[in-house]
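name: query_chain
kind: protein
chains: 1
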Amino acid sequence: MATANDIRKGMAIIYNGDVAVVLDSQHRTPGNLRAFVQASIRSLKTGKSSDVRFSSTEKIDVVPMQTRKMEFSYKDGQDFVFSDPETYETVTLTPELVGDAKNFLVENASVTMTFVDDKAVSIEMPSSVILTVTDAPEGIRGDSANNVQKTITIETGITVQAPLFIKTGEKIKIDTRTGKYMERA
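structure:
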């Protein structure tokens, strides 16, 4: 059994008889009070998030988690469908669970999916992805004195700031953590 001090982001714990994923945790020691751990958790059963406070020495049940490589297959209405490249088993996730990763998902994109009790709880994108530019306005002649950027649209529909030399149809590398242009691919 672990203590509340061992709680980290991404862990699965048992809280009030329900499995919950830790979204964020902070260890605090206010002035003349005892130390505690403030955690934000999401219940797997209900999907609701809540902030909870644990005594720093409180015992916590940690639930084992498995990770698997999955590929994005297609979007079904609002939901996202992923498949296991080895077993072809499919998993459907809601937009809330996919989060900001939806801005970088294209067909056959590889992701790392985390499972608790055979239920998907989170996905992790690679640090960068290669996407095609669908709309890039022409740069204005003589507008290259400094590091001038223009707004381009990529195949997933989001807009990114990129250098003036990027043209429609080119493939570029995007950082999935910041959403910024990195280089040509």
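note: Helices lie at 95-98.
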